[in-house]
Design a protein that fits this description.
The complex is a heterodimer of chains A (439) and B (525).
Chain A lengths: L4 H10 L8 H27 L6 H20 L28 H16 L5 H19 L4 H22 L71 H14 L3 H9 L9 H17 L3 H29 L4 H8 L19 H17 L5 E3 L10 E3 L2 H14 L5 H19 L6
Antiparallel strand pairs in A: 1-2
Chain B lengths: L23 E3 L1 H4 L17 E4 L8 E4 L7 E5 L9 E4 L7 E7 L8 E8 L2 E7 L2 E4 L11 E9 L8 E6 L17 E3 L14 E2 L6 E7 L8 E6 L10 E4 L7 E2 L2 H4 L10 E5 L8 E5 L5 E5 L9 E3 L22 E7 L8 E6 L15 E5 L5 E3 L1 H4 L7 E7 L8 E6 L5 E5 L6 E7 L12 E6 L2 E6 L2 E2 L5 E2 L3 E6 L3 E7 L9 E4 L2 E5 L6 E3 L3
Parallel strand pairs in B: 2-33, 29-37
Antiparallel strand pairs in B: 1-28, 2-3, 3-4, 4-5, 6-7, 7-8, 7-10, 8-9, 10-11, 10-32, 11-12, 12-13, 14-15, 15-16, 16-17, 18-19, 19-20, 20-21, 22-23, 23-24, 24-25, 26-27, 27-28, 29-34, 30-31, 30-35, 35-36, 37-38
Classes of the chains: A mainly alpha (439), B mainly beta (525).
Chain lengths: 439, 525
């Protein structure tokens, strides 16, 4: 299905506004809403990197709640949009607007401001300062020229939307993350195929967030039904299938081209050094929104669906990871092939199967393909300020497949973990893609 | 003073029993220390202390940064071996001070002071009797206008004037998006020709990645120290830990993965401490961060590549979370310093700890560490038992013998509370020696020299540096614990590479060492 920009424009211009604005003014206010939405997300991409709680699964959860907040703030005043209440697990109908005029940018800003302050409450002094400044700057932008009573009413409504979402978020099992997600007490497995710590970092001798797979999903009704099949039978014998997968990691590492090294680093998306894998896909949407001047409603519903898909993908993947508790390539290779072997990338501190980045990329590409079409080309400059070049993709699917393959190049996943992750993620993403955001 | 043969008394060997426990008594209030490190966001890093003797009595004075409040110079009035006592003066009362390092810049034998600030950095020329004048302009020093948070100094080969490296933090004017706004670090080299005894315009050490510690160190014993820079990953984009080549007469050149085998490491770099912990003859580096800290040792010195292994975990020295106080969140570490605190002949490590401020993902009650070396490459925590496990929000520090009794004392700068001062008061069985390096003409305090100590069949190397830590430094007596040994076999390799003969010095003595001369005991007759 090709991307239909006309359809999106139609959505925007046909949407009634509570202020009954003339089309030109309505378009101007929509531009302000768009600026509010994108600027807050620009900050969120930074805050994710600078809040120690925000390991990749936690970051995906945060993006999902922010995305749903923005969509619901807009949907509450636009009959062309459809609420996600009743579609997302345990999300009850949101506060409705009362009498009087409302201003969309003010509603949206107030909702985002409140949600971000709460979801990123653990960020450091610089993040706190940035949130405060953003609140001031975007608040000024939103209310500029608006009547005080309209502003006050709109802000109150936006805050009520956020409060509703935050109350819902508080009960999903992922609201409290301690010790950066690493349990204080952990009993390692005793089977030879069990995950073992891969670093000399004391904090990471226990795996990240072992209970995350039990969190409440957003859109998937039955997570167990999406679980990946068991990985290949564990075997230490040379010539066995499992040994062959490990040998492939070694051989791949030996023959890496500069392009493959670049791909590995491009999708590395390390926690606390980047916006994380989920943030990478959020960044892709923001770049497309900027390039194609997407209407605010399209951006917000896309971010909501994408956030939901990625958050559910991490829940599903983490459930699988701790069901099979499979060791990482570096552990197997050091034990059975080459004690001195080191991967290109730093191995993440949790079990291998399935690949988290593959799972959430599969989910993300499924959602984005459902919105923009299956041959939607785009450039990705997410890591340009880290010194990594822009990469171009012919489709979201192509990007997801490269992301999955990057984990093999990086030496941190077996091929089967990446492939199963993509399949798992696509299945998860289908539920988010099916969410109805338009009336 | 004694000249030594090559093999004399073997010093105490490795100690595998429980290390001797030092006992510290806090004397902050009784000693008259009242200076806190004040300020909010722009003072979340910094908070340094400098110790040096400016009165000529051999006892180290204390200069405390005050952040948004005034800095203060405290004159040491402690009696030898007695309770610590300081007299606060207004001699160096500056605002916006983040840290300081003593350095005899003009080599006149009177200590000067490098003051790092939020805004213009200052060079203060010592006039004697603990009086100072601002020599920033007179020495051609461009103090800039930045958030200066790291410093190191060296006399490059053939120079009569030092080279200063200044590390800078984020662009403080960026409010909503400060990340990625790391400002340039500077290298202030001497001028040329008639300008040789003043500073040339600074060179930008581009790329810069928000340095919080810098150290000139001869990591490969090439005779040409390189500049290590520890950077805060919270703010850089595309950054990492760094090291710069500094060849005489050549522009600084960054070590790279491609050309030098430099390995990328990205941490919340806050402080560097250097010592030859594994006794392989090469300096090792303790890098403070948040959660786990690093102890880097060269993997293969013969390879010539700066490829380091992190052995903090197996050394029991990660200091990744509080060990007392009940807060189980990860720690935030700042000033690290190796020293033999219990005089058993083994290096120990002090680490100042404190939350950045209101970061709930990290420990709010974060005690300082005192990790005692056990002689087998491992360390054991003793901060609480020794009495220095403060829950103040610590930043800079110095481990120094303030009352010249041979037992190291401790000063720690805290945010919003007065710096804390501890005197070591327990009885330790181990002996010690303290030496002061002195040269004529240039680089009077012999920055860049190496003190070697022979203990049995091992030679322990100590680089004498100006820099590192967290915006804190000292010049003065160099303390070495001796354990049960009654003498120490020691020699100095001076900054020009000249190695003196081995000396045998008596335990429990202060010695002045000069190139090519016999040691002179202090105080003399």
């Amino acid at each position: 299905m090709p991307f239909r920009r006309r359809q999106f424009l139609g959505l925007t211009l046909s949407a009634p506004f509570a202020l009954h604005l003339k089309p030109a003014l309505a378009a101007a206010r929509a531009d302000v809403s768009r600026e509010v939405l994108l600027t807050w997300h620009k900050l969120i991409l930074e805050l994710v990197r600078h809040t120690a709680t925000y390991m990749p699964p936690v970051a995906a959860r945060g993006f999902a709640y922010i995305g749903v907040t923005a969509h619901e703030a807009l949907a509450s005043g636009n009959p062309a949009l459809h609420s996600l209440a009743g579609q997302l697990t345990d999300l009850s109908p949101l506060p409705t607007r009362g009498e009087g005029a409302f201003d969309e940018p003010c509603v949206l800003h107030a909702a985002l401001n409140a949600a971000v302050l709460e979801l990123f409450a653990n960020t450091g002094p610089t993040g706190q300062r940035a949130m405060e400044k953003m609140g001031e700057i975007m608040g000024r932008t939103a209310r500029d020229g608006m009547a005080t009573d309209v502003v006050d009413r709109s802000v109150a409504h936006g805050q009520a939307i956020a409060a509703h979402i935050l109350a819902w978020a508080a009960t999903d099992g992922g609201a409290v993350v301690e010790n950066m997600g690493f349990p204080h007490d952990y009993t390692p497995g005793t089977n030879p195929q069990d995950w073992a710590p891969t670093s000399a970092i004391r904090l990471q001798q226990a795996p990240l967030l072992p209970a995350w797979g039990g969190n409440r999903p957003f859109a998937v009704p039955d997570m167990a039904a999406l679980d990946a099949p068991p990985p290949p039978a564990y075997d230490e014998a040379a010539g066995s299938a499992f040994h062959g997968f490990a040998a492939e990691v070694v051989e791949t590492a030996k023959a890496l081209t500069d392009e493959q090294k670049l791909i590995a680093r491009f999708w590395s998306d390390d926690a606390m050094l980047t916006p994380t894998p989920a943030g990478h896909w959020i960044s892709i949407v923001m770049q497309i929104a900027d390039r194609d001047a997407l209407p605010v409603e399209v951006i917000s519903s896309t971010l909501a669906k994408l956030g939901v898909a990625q958050a559910d993908a991490f829940i599903s993947c983490w459930s699988t990871k701790f069901r099979y508790n499979l060791l990482r390539p570096v552990t197997y290779i050091k034990r059975h092939i080459d004690p001195a072997w080191e991967p290109l990338l730093i191995t993440p501190p949790f079990p291998e199967y399935t690949s988290g980045h593959s799972t959430q990329s599969g989910a993300a590409s499924t959602v984005l393909t459902s919105i923009f079409g299956d041959s939607f080309a785009f450039d990705d400059a997410t890591h340009e300020d880290e010194g990594l070049p822009v990469r171009s993709f012919a489709s979201f699917e192509a990007a997801a497949e490269e992301a999955a393959m990057s984990r093999l190049y990086g030496g941190i996943h077996f091929r089967f973990g990446n492939e199963a992750g993509l399949v798992q993620g696509r299945a998860v993403g289908a539920f988010a893609a099916a969410l109805r955001t338009e009336a | 003073m004694m000249r030594a043969g090559l093999l004399i008394l073997a010093l105490a060997g490795p100690v595998l029993a429980e290390p001797a426990l030092p006992t510290f008594t806090e004397e902050t209030a009784s000693a008259g220390i009242t200076t806190p490190f004040e300020g909010d966001w722009e003072y979340m890093v910094g908070g340094g202390v400098a110790t040096f003797d400016c009165s000529g009595d051999g006892f180290p004075e204390l200069f405390l940064s005050g952040g948004a409040g005034p800095s203060a110079l405290y004159l040491n009035r402690s009696p030898k071996g007695g309770a610590l006592a300081f007299e606060k003066t207004g001699a160096v009362s500056l605002d916006a001070v983040l840290g300081a390092y003593p350095l005899d810049i003009d080599s006149d034998g009177v200590m000067d002071l490098v003051v790092l600030r939020l805004g213009e950095n200052r060079l203060l020329r010592g006039l004697g009797d603990c009086r100072f004048e601002d020599a920033t302009q007179a020495w051609g020093f461009d103090g800039g206008d930045a958030w200066s948070t790291a410093f190191a100094a060296i006399w490059e080969k053939g120079q009569t004037w030092p080279t200063l490296a200044v590390g800078n933090y984020v662009d403080r004017k960026e409010e909503a998006f400060p990340w990625g706004s790391c400002t340039d670090n500077w290298l202030h080299r001497p001028g040329v020709g008639s300008e040789a005894n003043r500073f040339a315009a600074p060179l930008a050490l581009t790329p810069s990645h928000c340095a919080l510690s810098m150290l000139f160190t001869d990591w490969n014993r090439s005779g040409h120290p390189s500049l290590r820079v520890s950077n805060d990953r919270e703010y850089y984009k595309g950054g990492q830990e760094q090291m710069w080549h500094l060849e005489p007469g050549q522009p600084p050149r960054l070590y790279t993965e491609k050309d030098d085998g430099w390995k990328r490491l990205r941490i919340w770099g806050m402080g560097i401490a250097s010592a030859d912990v594994n006794l392989d003859g090469y300096p090792d580096y303790y890098l403070t961060s948040m959660a786990d800290n690093k102890l880097q040792v060269l993997k293969d010195p013969a390879s010539g590549k700066p490829d380091f292994a992190d052995i903090a975990f197996k050394s029991g020295i990660t200091a990744h979370r509080p060990y007392t106080g009940g807060d189980l969140n990860p720690s935030t570490a700042w000033h690290p310093q190796f020293a033999d605190v219990n005089n058993d002949g083994l290096l120990d490590l002090f680490v100042a700890k404190g939350n950045v401020a209101q970061m709930p993902d990290f420990a709010a009650k974060d005690p300082n560490n005192l990790l005692l070396g056990q002689g087998d490459g491992t360390f054991v925590e003793a901060g609480d038992r020794a009495g220095v496990a403060s829950f103040g929000i610590a930043r800079g520090a110095q481990v120094v013998d303030f009352n010249l009794d041979g037992l190291l004392d401790l000063v720690v700068v805290n945010r919003w509370e007065p710096a804390q001062l501890w005197r070591q008061t327990g009885a330790l069985a181990g002996g010690w020696v303290q030496v002061r390096l002195q040269q004529d003409n240039v680089n009077r305090d012999a920055i860049g020299s190496v003190v070697e100590i022979r203990r049995g069949d091992k030679v322990e190397r100590h680089e004498i540096v100006s820099g590192g830590g967290h915006v804190s430094g000292s010049v003065g007596w160099l303390h070495f614990g001796l354990g049960a040994a009654e003498t120490v076999e020691l020699r100095v390799i001076w900054p020009d590479g000249t190695a003196d003969d081995w000396l045998t010095l008596p335990a429990r003595s202060f010695q002045i060492l000069r190139p090519g001369q016999t040691a002179k005991e202090w105080p003399g007759d």
